[in-house]
Every structure is written in structure tokens, then in C-alpha cells.
Amino acid sequence: MIREKIQIDEITVALSAAADALEDMTPLFEDIGMLMEARTKANFLKGQAPDGSAWAPKSMATIEKYRRTEGSESVPMNPLIGTSSRLMDNINHQARPDGVDWGSDAIYAAVMHFGAKQGEFGARIGKDKNGRDFFMSIPWGDIPARPFLGIGPEDENAILQTIENYLREAVGQ
């Protein structure tokens, strides 16, 4: 085999920049984290899963409970946006050199994402403010799964574009 060493400064510089950019990909994963955080929040506003499917609507029991506890006829109909938007507002991300996590640390986030059957987490037993005994299953009714985390087809394209942009910037194009 014949070998010849060719060194072209522009190529050497570009390869060096690419190697540096790939050594610690925290900036890329930060970009992907911000992208997916924004896309997840946008899905909340649309009331849909990452794959574009609509979330199950609020049950009439939930709507009636909102009316009783909030004292208002105006009930937010979006299934995962209550009066506070706390779950949506709590979506965040954390980038590392080897990946990115995004989601929510809200205590009820997993139940909202995966759903739960009535009584799946036990029950509360006690006395109400009038001294009467009560028993309440947790959750008090079935909660349908409403997936809010994940990567849908449009997200895949956006992530690939983000990676492409990152690599172009790394080699100076």
C-alpha cells in the first residue's frame, strides 16, 4: 500500500474543532434540553402527547371538584393545566457531557404521565373538620395516562437539526 501524508491547514483546524466539540458535548445537550423543554411546554398548551395524540379530557367528577374547591364556573379544560399550571411550569432540563434529562420533579408528575387506578396508592383515614370519620382512596378516582414526556417525530427532526447546527458551528461553517 502506498501512503502519502497530506496536511491541509483548513481540514486540520476543522477536524481539531470537531474533536474538541465532541469531547465534551454538554453545550449540545444543553441546546437539546432547552429545545425539548420548550417543545414539552408547547405540547401542554395543545393538550397532547409528544406523538401528537390528544390527552384524555378531564372527567366530569374532576370538573365538579374544581367547581366546588375553586368556587368558579370557569374550569381549565386542558387536562394537565389546572388553575396554577404548576406541572407545565415545572418542566426543566439538566445537561451533562454524555446526555440530557428533562422532565418534572413534581410529586404527582409520574401519575399524570403514566396514570393510576383508584386506590393504587392506598387511602387516607381520619376525621374531617366536623369530627366525622372519613376514608378516601388515593387517588380518589382513576387517572388516565397523559404522556407529556418523550420524543415525537417532529421532535426527532428538530433534535437532528440541532445536532447538525452544533457540528457546523464546531467546524466553523
Kindly give the count of domains: 1
Strand arrangement, major sheet: 1-2
Relative strand content: 5-15%
Q: Termini separation (Å)? A: 34 Å
Tell me the overall shape: elongated
Helix/strand structural class: alpha+beta
Average predicted local confidence, pLDDT: 85
InterPro entries: Phage_virion_morphogenesis
Organism: Thalassococcus arenae
Protein name: Phage virion morphogenesis protein
Pfam family, one: Phage_tail_S
Descriptive account of the structure:
Strand 1 and strand 2 (99-103) form a beta hairpin. The chain starts with 8 loop residues before the first helix and ends with a helix. It has one domain (10-114, 146-170). Helix 2 (26-46) packs antiparallel against helix 6. The protein contains 6 helices and 4 strands; from the N terminus they run ααααββαββα. The chain has a two-stranded antiparallel sheet. The protein has a two-stranded antiparallel sheet with strand order 3-4. The chain is α+β, with helices and mostly antiparallel strands and 173 residues long. The model has no long low-confidence stretch (mean pLDDT 85). This is Phage virion morphogenesis protein. It holds the Pfam family Phage_tail_S.
